[in-house]
Specification:
14-stranded antiparallel beta barrel, 46% strand, rod-shaped
């Protein structure tokens, strides 16, 4: 039951759910990306993020663009854990405002750029019914407390109210300079400052135990059961003490019937002692055949067991009290970025490397019923290094095709432990591959479409209902409309479908082996406005 406290802390992990990109990083930074999915060789204004070394391919001038995406994600977890009231848990992550902005000043061989967007996080996650990891800790009390029936406090059912809401935003504020070495080669040097804000509220309330239709406050129920166990421990200790004179007098090998026949105890005393043994779970035959010494040992050991049970229940009862958490975590880090662009007329190749971002987060705790979030405590939430490359080819005046690949070096990051206290290990680095095409219907209007495939490298040990990373595929489509020589509109939508992953658990009887499945899907709509000031 101590893990009831740990569970609320997992809310933060859910807010890191990826829309496009690696486990933590978001690569859906523009409407152009949404409509085409392959932008690592871009020479448009969104190259500020995707291919900053390619900005020298733009005409001289000052450019500005603003993008917004509306992102809606549903996560579904199914658990085969016995004793749960329900097997399916759904969470909604909504980000109606997911903005980004880019600015470029291009003059001859130089291009100076700035960018702003959501580098990680960016959504609010709600699980109105909590998650299996929350509820299992209460549902698991049903078999664990089955022995309380002997005390008159049977536990065959439960009730609990669980909910949490978490939000996470890792902003990215980027600046840098691109230099055109010659007609073919351009290079970029820049950095991104990443301020991070995580906020979440969680609660586990109204834990009730008992039988169907007769549920009572869990803390009160265990406290009452502890009192009953304590009383029974005293009674059995008294029974053991009452048999000591018989044992000391040499009657230890006799049965209770025999010592009554010898006049050493009364019939009422015998009935009381035999009744007590029956209440301890012995059969009538066992009681009849039991010696006085064995009866004393049984009463004595039962007294010790009941006293221990009373102490355990007394210690566990407070863990079933209502718990609330209201915490904000803030911090930041810097990402050095380098890039290279190679232009061979119709073929353009872009490369970018982002170094690992070291981020420390500091707790600002309002309420913490778990004791896990001391105010002022610091933790790490590093962003892995990224290597991105792409190539675009102008087939003819109307058609351009593009391919992109991105590697997220997740193996170099310490991801900590999941809610099951297992290390969240990485077997291989996350890889994202995409293809896109753009076709001009007219000089001012173009249609585009793209496909992306991602392969996560997490181990089975990494996965949990709080934080899971699955392989996925994404399709996107949209258009670009050059309204005039200065103003351009981009719009698109994409749908991401994640493959279902299954994790198997094995626990002691009566729980045994069971599976949990994890999946999600994401729908995104985006628009962007670009303007050339001069």
């Amino acid at each position: 039951m101590n893990r009831l406290a740990v569970l609320i802390s997992g809310a933060l992990l859910l807010t890191s759910t990826a829309f496009a990109g690696g486990i933590l990083t978001k690569t859906n930074q523009s409407a152009q990306f949404v409509r085409m999915l392959s932008r690592n060789a871009s020479t448009d204004i969104d190259a500020v993020y995707y291919n900053p070394a390619g900005l020298t391919q733009m005409a001289n001038g000052f450019y500005f663009a603003f993008n917004n995406q509306s992102i809606f994600q549903t996560s579904t977890i199914n658990s085969g854990y016995p004793f749960l009231h329900n097997s399916e848990y759904k969470g909604e992550t909504n980000a109606p405002v997911f903005p980004s902005a880019f600015a470029v000043y291009k003059t001859d061989k130089w291009a100076f750029s700035a960018g702003f967007g959501v580098n990680a996080g960016g959504g609010t996650t709600k699980f109105d019914r909590g998650l299996p990891s929350f509820e299992k800790q209460v549902a698991g009390l049903v078999p664990a407390l089955s022995g309380l029936s002997a005390l008159g406090y049977p536990v065959t059912d439960y009730n609990v109210d669980i909910s949490f809401e978490g939000s996470s935003v890792f902003w990215g504020i980027q600046g840098g300079a691109t230099y055109k070495v010659n007609k073919i080669l351009s290079v970029y040097l820049g950095a991104r400052y990443v301020p991070a804000i995580n906020t979440y509220n969680g609660s586990i309330t109204n834990i009730q135990l008992g039988t169907a239709g007769n549920l009572k406050n869990g803390t009160t129920y265990l406290t009452s059961a502890a009192a009953a166990a304590s009383v029974k421990a005293q009674v059995t200790a008294g029974a053991a003490a009452s048999l000591q004179p018989l044992v000391a007098g040499g009657a230890g090998s006799m049965t209770l019937a025999q010592v009554q026949g010898a006049g050493l105890i009364t019939s009422a005393q015998r009935a009381q002692l035999e009744g007590g043994l029956l209440q301890l779970g012995l059969t009538s035959a066992q009681v009849s055949a039991m010696s006085v010494a064995s009866a004393q040992t049984t009463y004595s050991s039962s007294s010790a067991y009941l006293a221990g049970t009373a102490a355990t229940l007394t210690a566990k009862a407070p863990a079933l009290a209502d718990k609330h958490v209201d915490v904000k975590q803030t911090g930041g880090g810097v990402t050095p970025i380098i890039g290279v662009n190679i232009n061979l007329e119709k073929l353009n190749i872009g490369l970018k490397y982002e170094h690992m971002t070291i981020i420390g987060l500091t707790n600002e705790t309002v309420v913490d019923g778990t004791g896990l979030f001391p105010d002022g405590q610091k933790t790490n939430s590093d962003i892995p290094a990224i290597l991105a490359g792409g190539a675009s080819y102008q087939v003819n005046d109307k058609l351009k095709i593009s391919g992109s690949g991105t590697i997220f070096f997740d193996k170099n990051v310490n991801w900590g432990k999941n809610v099951y206290l297992q290390e969240r290990t990485i077997d291989k680095n996350f890889v994202e591959l995409s293809l896109g095409a753009e076709y001009k219907l007219t000089d001012k209007f173009a249609l585009s479409a793209g496909y992306m495939n991602t392969n996560t490298g997490v181990s089975k040990q990494f996965q949990s209902d709080f934080s899971f990373s699955n392989d996925s595929y994404t399709t996107g489509l949209g258009f670009q409309w050059n309204i005039n020589d200065r103003l351009v509109l981009d719009a698109g939508m994409m749908l991401t479908t994640y493959k279902t992953d299954t994790k198997t658990f094995t626990e002691p009887a009566p729980i045994g082996t069971y599976n949990e499945t994890y999946t999600k899907d994401t729908f995104t709509m985006a628009f962007g406005i670009g303007y050339k000031i001069f």
